[in-house]
Amino acid sequence: MTxxxxxxxxxxxxxVIATLCWACNFIAPYVLQGYGIADFMLVRFVMAGLLGALxxxxxxxxxxxxxxxxxxxxxxxxxxGYLAYSSCIAGGVIYGGPLMIAAFIGAVPVLQALLxxxxxxxxxxxxxxMPLGLLCLGLVLINLQVLTDAPAAHTxxxxxxxxxxxxxxxxxxxSVVNQTAVERLHTGATGAWTCLMMIGAGLAxxxxxxxxxxxxxxxxxIQGFATPAALKLYACAGLIALLSSVxxxxxxxxxxxxxxxxxxxxxxxxxxxxxxxxxxAFHGRAPSNFEAxxxxxxxxxxVYSVRIIMSPxxxxxxxxxxx
Length: 323
Prior knowledge:
Elements: H1 4-22, H2 37-55, H3 60-64, H4 68-96, H5 98-119, H6 125-142, H7 144-148, H8 157-183, H9 190-214, H10 220-223, H11 228-258, H12 261-267, H13 269-283, H14 289-310
Helix pairs in contact: 1-11, 1-13, 2-4, 2-9, 2-11, 4-5, 4-8, 4-9, 5-6, 5-8, 5-12, 5-13, 6-14, 9-11, 13-14
């Protein structure tokens, strides 16, 4: 019989894999190959939808255990948590820079941990003070330059802020609904659920294609669908679709089954950690002293959160009167 401790370790491992894969969303604007972000997003999610449709028949037994409402919920979550969220991430990177969007996404673990503990009291609020404080301080240090720059330093500051705020709201909505939906799935239905989300994102991308075309947002029809640059675009979009939409979603669904929301919420901070590292790599520079300190604090906060959850003396779920 699997022990609770090993289940949590498995959940943490799946969460690390998921956040590392999702951090690939932050590099999308750097691999456009001369095309627009609309081209990249539509190609990427159509590919993800095709992958989901091809793999879905392998989970026929799982599908028979799902209700029609669960099919629709899974596909709607794909459109919300894949296409819409990733588009906001890309917009935040383009208009605000990778560190600004990382700062906003970094607020998600704090908000989700608080929300998760309010919904299902897994820890005393006093136990959350230290790890959440470390995460907050680490995120501030990573993004200190963005926070102190004058607004005039960012030509599209407000647009970047809008995309960043949209990404936070979309992820919180997706995470809460998906956590509840996954807990209601029958055992072993995670693969089918992931495929349904991929198909939903692909269908949403197809439905948006005529609108993007009519507004001249697509460069593929103008520059050609079979040029060397287009083939590179397909390769990059396919790779990110595989990492983020397939492996990342599969790993996160497995993590959601094994971890309380209060812990999984804090582990999302690792996405900001990996995204910052990737952003620095694409900018070709090492982290500043403050950024390095922030990265260390985020890692320490995540590890400390896991240690609290896995502690033998961990408090049992407590009534609303717990402080």
